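This week, think about what follows.
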Amino acid sequence: MSPRNDSPRCDEVHGAFGELAILLRGGDDDPIRHELVLDGLVRAAGGDRNTAARVLEPLIPQWPGLWPALVAAAIGRDAPPHPGYHPRYHTERHPMTLFVERRVAELTARLVTAPPVALLATPATVAGHVDPARVLGLLLEAERDGWQPGEADLTQAILRLPRVVDRAVRATAARLVSPAGRRFAGWLATPAEPRTWVEEVGHQPYVSSRRIAMLDPAGLPAELADPRSAAERARSARNATAVALWPMIAPSHREAMAAHIQPFAAAIVDRGNPGTGFLAGLAAADGPVGPAMSLTMAYALANHRQTARLAAGDALIELAARPGWDSTGIGAKVGTLATADRIVLQRIVQPLAEALKAGARDTVWQVTSAALPVLLPAGPRPGLADLVDLAANAAPRGGHSADLPGLAALAAKPGRNRLTEAARRLAAFMPT
């Protein structure tokens, strides 16, 4: 995408109208559409506003919220408050939702006063990464022409930088002198890796006991912080909105975004419609796997909706293709959650079976061989026979070093049932 805003063609304006209409009618749950609309409105503001107004103005009085104000600002019109909209009806205040809203509000204000040349944070990949050279070019242009990008736009661009940036870009960035340029250069010079961990939340009114991923965002922009306790995050998780947008906020920090998403994945494991966009976003993102991502995937694989479980299986297949990916942590979380009756074990069998059919054999073995050491000593439960059978199908041929406590004793039990038969099949692949 060009850093400059050439006057939009009529078909581009109609394209922005179409994407905006879908967003408003269907909800703001597609991160690519979200960014296309933002970029399209900036282009409309930089071109023939009268042409853009004829196409976009009909949307302004129809819909409540931030978007009508943004559209009005892009075409130089006023947007009266919608009678059906009041902030008190929108109580969810998750930091990621606030950041998404802040970007829209910031752009609205800038389109009224000084429309930007372009947005720094416009992604260059479907995962959400920006092109570092393009961001650098816009910052150089800003210094030359005497303007500064919006703070939220700059923050979002920084969070979307790929994990590896060309040395020439870093060298040129080091010579920037504006506040925005210095911040950009500083991030390139000292990238950060957040720390995550898991806390136990006991049973509370309206909230069952569950495990909640926590995040220490030290070194990352403050917008990624969530100062609430694990209990507070658990209580509000079901109210989260537009969760599918969140992975694209920091596509190089999958684990950090998983820490934000995991309470939601836990809250909707047995009820509600979770959607599946956040799973695709996490799978497309980069960064090391940690407890937050493992816990998110464990809950998603056990979701009460088949569509969500299969989407989690698709995400697992995509992750399995990543160099160095290890799903052992997911399996360990599955075992822990199932033995504590936090998830229904039977549910995870189908998505894992589909992953095995798709060729993700090593990954399925990693999950099952990490879950079984926790599950087998806990005794029979629904779904265990299927999981052991799946492990036997995925087990490496030719020997391996997995330690599965309780397998030998189970396989040696007299009699025939599905669990003991599956245990015998799996035990046959274990080294003696």
Observations:
- The two ends are 59 Å apart (CA to CA).
